[in-house]
Design brief:
With 191 residues, the chain is mostly helical. Helices cover 62% and strands 0% of the residues.
């Protein structure tokens, strides 16, 4: 499984309506092959992908401030709760299209960690782990903040891989803080 995490059940990400999922993170192609060959679940529909693209386009019209809810953040959370795991798959495909700015992807990541929906938890974690390896530091930062909010110790292995690949010292320190937080969470859950 990618980055040492168990793939979520029903995870499907491949070419969709001309938006090819990028293999920008290590092992993604291998994961795509595993997912497409081992799962009988349907891909997100064209309508769902178009809705994800519209949603991310809404983000491009907004001004973001840390921790401030916007119509984009509300719509994003409603979208993921309403459509479940296929919505997360559609978001990944839309984000991979090259049509979405790093700022919007980053903001989406920040809010994906805050969604209160156990049925999409694993898929949202996978999206955030995938974004940890994005070429943009802005997206990586958003993914890190999303993982911190998600507070899932299963992300530690991906974070450690990211930590070893990260070139910016200050961001490596931020990653280590989140690793420490998640290891603490794991210790608390274990006691």
């Amino acid at each position: 499984a990618l980055l040492g995490t168990k793939p979520p059940p029903r995870q499907r990400v491949t070419e969709l309506s001309g938006a090819t999922v990028s293999a920008s993170c290590p092992g993604l192609r291998r994961r795509l092959v595993l997912l497409t060959s081992s799962s009988a679940q349907p891909l997100p529909t064209r309508d769902l992908l178009e809705e994800a693209i519209r949603l991310l386009a809404l983000g491009a019209t907004e001004h973001f401030e840390d921790g401030v809810e916007t119509s984009f953040s509300h719509a994003l959370m409603r979208f993921s709760v309403r459509y479940g795991w296929p919505a997360i798959d559609a978001l990944v495909a839309a984000m991979s299209s090259g049509l979405v700015s790093a700022e919007v992807i980053s903001e989406a990541c920040r809010w994906m960690g805050r969604v209160e929906d156990p049925s999409t938890h694993d898929h949202r974690r996978w999206l955030l782990e995938w974004c940890l390896f994005h070429p943009s530091i802005l997206v990586r930062d958003g993914a890190l903040l999303g993982l911190a909010a998600l507070d899932d110790p299963c992300a530690v292995r991906s974070l450690l891989m990211c930590l070893h690949k990260e070139r910016y010292e200050s961001f490596r320190e931020d990653i280590q803080q989140v690793v420490d937080q998640l290891e603490s969470t794991e210790r608390c859950r274990g006691s």
